[in-house]
Design brief:
233 residues, alpha+beta, 5 helices, 32% strand, globular
Length: 233
């Protein structure tokens, strides 16, 4: 399994923290501290377009998941600024997960620019019975991603497997009681217009896809659009 990975955090500012304060802290303190670490390759903030909550998502592409276990990252919780301490005390939810990159890695569109992801994102979280995991992975590799790559506006599809979840932070942290689904897919698109094409309908309605959908214990999708991206120089 690849040592590279993903830090994935759902966020909701909530009634006690104005969105403006949440975004200022995220953009001017939280992310810059992490992007000062070379192993943080890209960070992207996303906002939901599906009307669901949490309203925000942050994805951090990591050269190595091990960077989360050593300083300076491992010291961030004990060296918080006064502003960050205040934000954490008022924010409604920060729901954190880490993932291993799941291989094989399918190549992105030829003109894909990792410094400008999206601008549209579909996240898919899936759990299946252990006996169906090999078939789920084969479906993604042999059929689903190859079909998605033929859809106009497709930019990139990546898959991940859960390493660990939590601990959640915020006034609603105690409501996060379930383990997230084991498998995560991130699909980037140039526009949501792609979802109205014949190619997309074909990719999401094959007999094999419908078998996996009806067999899944969890099949949860979300839609987002990019807010801001940071990348290493």
């Amino acid at each position: 399994m690849s040592t590279s990975g993903l830090l994935f955090v759902f966020g909701e500012a909530g009634p006690l923290l104005p969105d403006a304060d949440f975004h200022y802290w995220y953009n001017n303190e939280h992310v810059p501290l992490r992007m000062a670490i070379p192993e943080f390759l890209h960070t992207t903030r996303w906002i939901a377009t599906d009307g669901k909550v949490p309203s925000y998502l942050a994805t951090y592409d990591l050269a190595s998941l091990g960077v989360l276990d050593i300083p300076p990252y491992s010291t961030f919780a004990s060296t918080r600024s006064a502003r960050e301490t205040d934000v954490i005390s008022r924010v409604q939810l920060l729901d954190r997960r880490t993932y291993h990159v799941l291989e094989p890695v399918f190549p992105p569109a030829p003109d894909y620019n990792p410094h400008a992801p999206g601008p549209c994102l579909i996240t898919m979280q899936i759990d299946v019975e252990p006996g169906l995991e090999d078939e789920l992975n084969r479906w993604y590799t042999e059929e689903h991603i190859p079909l998605l790559s033929k859809v106009p506006g497709w930019r990139q599809s990546r898959r991940f497997v859960l390493k660990e979840a939590g601990p959640a932070k915020g006034t609603d942290a105690a409501t996060v009681t379930k383990q997230p689904p084991k498998y995560l897919a991130l699909h980037e698109w140039a526009s949501e217009a792609s979802f109205d094409t014949a190619e997309f309908r074909r990719a999401t309605s094959t007999p094999w896809r419908m078998k996996m959908f009806h067999s899944a214990m969890t099949w949860s999708g979300r839609r987002f659009e990019v807010m801001k991206t940071w990348s290493q120089e």
